[in-house]
Amino acid sequence: MIFLDWISKKFKSRSALPWCWSKKKKFQAMTTKPIFHSDQPAKNDSLGWSNFAKNLARSLSLPEGSDESIVVGIEGEWGSGKSTLIGLIKKSLSEEGNADPKPIIIEFNPWMVSGTEALVECLITQIAAGIGKNSGEKALKAASAVLRFSSSIKNLKSFKYWPEPTIALFGVVCEAIGGASEDARKSIKEHLSEIDLSKRRSDAINGLAKLNRSLIVIIDDLDRLPPEEIRSMIQTIKAVVDFPRTLYLLAYDRSIVARALGSNNEEDGLRYLEKIVQVAYPIPPISQRQLKKFAEEKISNLLTELSITLRPSEKSFYERAIAQAASLSRHMRDIVRIVNRLSLVLPIIYKEVNVADAIVFEALSQRFPELRENICNHPLHFCGRPFPDGISDADLSVEEWATREEELARTRKAQQNGDPHWAEFLPKGKEEQQVADSACRFLFSSSEDSPSIHGLRMADPGRLARYLRCTTIDGVPDAEEIHGILSDPVKLEQELSGDNKELSSLLRWLIDYIPSCSATDVEGCIEKLIDKSPLGVELETSNKISKVMGKLLKHAARTLDERKKCFLNIIEKASIHVSASIVCDAKKERSENHPLFKDNAFLEESIEKFIGRAWKVINGGLDGDFLRHVLYRLHYLQNKSSFHTAISKMCETDGGLARFLSCFDYLKTNDHLEIDPLNSIFNLIPEDLAKQIENSDSNEKYSWFIKLLTERKTKLVSQKGSSTEI
Predict the structure, then answer these.
(1) 61: closest CA among 91, 104, 97?
(2) In degrees rounded to 5, what are phi and psi of residue 594?
(3) 9 Cβ partners below 8 Å, 6+ apart?
(4) Sheet holding 246-252, edge to edge
(5) pLDDT digits 0-9 by tens, 344-381
(6) SS3 string of 690-718?
(7) Gap between the Cα atoms of 689 and 700, Å rounded
(8) Which of 253, 459, 583, 630 matches a 20 to 30 Å C-alpha distance to 650?
């Protein structure tokens, strides 16, 4: 069954908020406050880039007499450490004591504004402000000149919207003046003096020259802008603010910027980028050794902050877990995010699951979220066994049971081929496949070793299930809340009024908390559950209702007479598929000293009473999944001869035959013949059923079923060497 079906059995439904969220209930508090790490550039040099940054910083200050601006690019993918390197360069520039005079450092964050025009104006304004921060009259004059240059650009744009008359910027200005009013001509003349860009730019250049200092303008995160804003920034740097002795230090992802410049044609964009950027420094690649060192430092600090001391069984795996986390990380940001995930998870599970496994599982989940989902959906392929969900094979629906058998068959086939059980779920790329497979081997290769249990390893499906339960977004309600519901049938009735998805989560919590509630009103709760068990409720939810009733019947505080009364109430009033599960469970647990077996005669009499009611309901029109569910239980409760006699009698009419065969419709569209354990479904079939079908008006409609019976009989005869009764 898929994980979200299992969650529905154990926790919650996919599309509904958890019951305890939707009801605004309280949650169990974590043992320790989580410590989150921001996504800001690292302040310390954890990767050994300081020398590179110092050498680069020394070369950025342009010498006196430099007539043009220079553009230097720091190139690297997202998360590769560009901002960290920029920070180290700024630190080196501020510490550089030999440069005289020191360069003026100007930082511009393009994320502070939006819109191409605003970006241009803000960039020039920021340059002016950076110059003006330096004391002295020369700096202030240079800053003023740059601001006037910026103002001219702004005024030039405003003529585009001049209201009376509308004038063009070039060629038609004189003609427009001739036709304008005196006031308009005067206003235009004033503004024309303000938009002499050549003069204003020359003034700005002269002011900067008198400073006798180079400018270093740092622009980070250029690649995070929309494409049109990236183009605007590059054009502005090249054509508008290309001041002499000015160096622009840009940090960007080469591929993203190239696509923006080339209008999504990366090749054209790269040619353009090469003309703009005179020097490009690719970010130094991060080695696995560096990533491992960084991961070890961060995770070790986290364990200290959370006061978690590794146990011996965790210490033996810890170093390998750190190496796995590093190999699953593409850059330092990945490791920061892993640590943030662990800061939430570890306070909850460190006593439940091996910490080393938690480190690898969270790193694997972050890198390959689809693989995590497959681990949840198909635990059998990873752990070698399904989750211990407390549901016996007899309690599974045929579809659930068949799915489990199919997965077992697939794992056996993988073993025969020498492949890991999880091979089919690995990502497609060769490199990613190797990384994911290595992590899976760390987590699950010890599934048959006893240390997987004693060491709280996730290879034990019980530990994995516990981990998922503790870390699911479904909060764990306080026992006091559930006890309050169990002790007050009116409250229970209110909570049961939700839809099937909310109801599924509530029922799971009731199952968990019944044994610890001494004040449970067993009789009142069972009555409310009986009212909630009509056929309109999904079969899966009905199975949970029957499990809650079963737990209530076993409650230690109840007397035998109280249990008998409740048991009879269920047999007589609950939906037939719910009461079928309760009666069947009671008979199965004879050897386990079920409380009702203190009076064996009463139980046998009650079972006969249920059998009579069940056949009455069946003959009244029950069909499909509900009919199959009840027939499975009846086959267990009745002797084979009596059961098959009743089936044959039911199938004497075309309507009865059609309803009985509706139990097997799912076999028509699924290839279950390869799954030998399907014996149980065929146990429901009388030996003369094939003849009854052939003699009925539905023989053509169900010819596929006759063929199925014949093929199965032939197969069993071939396997056993003798005829087999079907």
Answers:
(1) 104
(2) -60, 135
(3) 1, 389, 391, 504, 508, 540, 544
(4) 104-108, 215-219, 246-252, 70-75, 279-282
(5) 899 888 888 899 999 999 999 999 999 998 888 788 88
(6) HHHHHCCCCCCCCHHHHHHHHHHHHHHHH
(7) 15
(8) 583
